[in-house]
Amino acid sequence: MEENKQDQGLVHLYHGTGKGKTTAAMGLALRALGQGFQVTVVQFLKDGRSGELEPLKKLGARVFSGPGTMKFSWKQTPEEREQTRQEQTALLKAALEEPCDLLVLDEACGACGTALVDEELVRQAVLCRPEGREVVLTGREPAQWMMDAADYITRMDGERHPYERGITARRGVEY
To answer: Which of 26, 73, 108, 132 is the most exposed place for a label (fewest CB within 10 A)?
Structure first.
């Protein structure tokens, strides 16, 4: 007998150099909340002040995000990198304690690629997820295992961005 694909949790991957990876993931989270699903969002490598987080929380999403003082990874000392790794891994562990229908792992590609989270724990969250759980991964450069695990793969490539003309990130658009 063929498995009911409608109820099967699938893996989504939004990756590439273009804008919109997090926006797509949060849009899916919003859609899931609108259908009564339980949603958990883990934001790696971000400070927890993105504009989409508060509305998602108000609608019932559980959000786990980094400390407000986080530096870019390439500006961190080895001690700061280890502390960040521990903090990011603790966020993921806490999130995995929560039941959910949709798990968004925002910037998981970058966090794994820079060793700022326990990649094996991320892999388990994806590959050993409970039946029916959708998982979303975002980031620039996914690991091969992420590509292999994904049921949906959307590559977002930037062709033009205002930053190239000196326009920095804008409130309500980029954050």
So the answer is: 132
The string of DSSP codes covering 54-83 is: HHHHHTT-EEEE--TTPPPGGG--HHHHHH
pTM comes to 0.91
d(CA 137, CA 10): 11
**Rounded to an integer, what distance in angstroms lies between the CA atom of residue 149 and that of residue 11?**
7
Contact predicate 129/96, CB 8 Å: no
How far apart CA 15 and CA 157 sit, in angstroms, is: 8
CA angle 86/99/113 to nearest 5° reads: 35
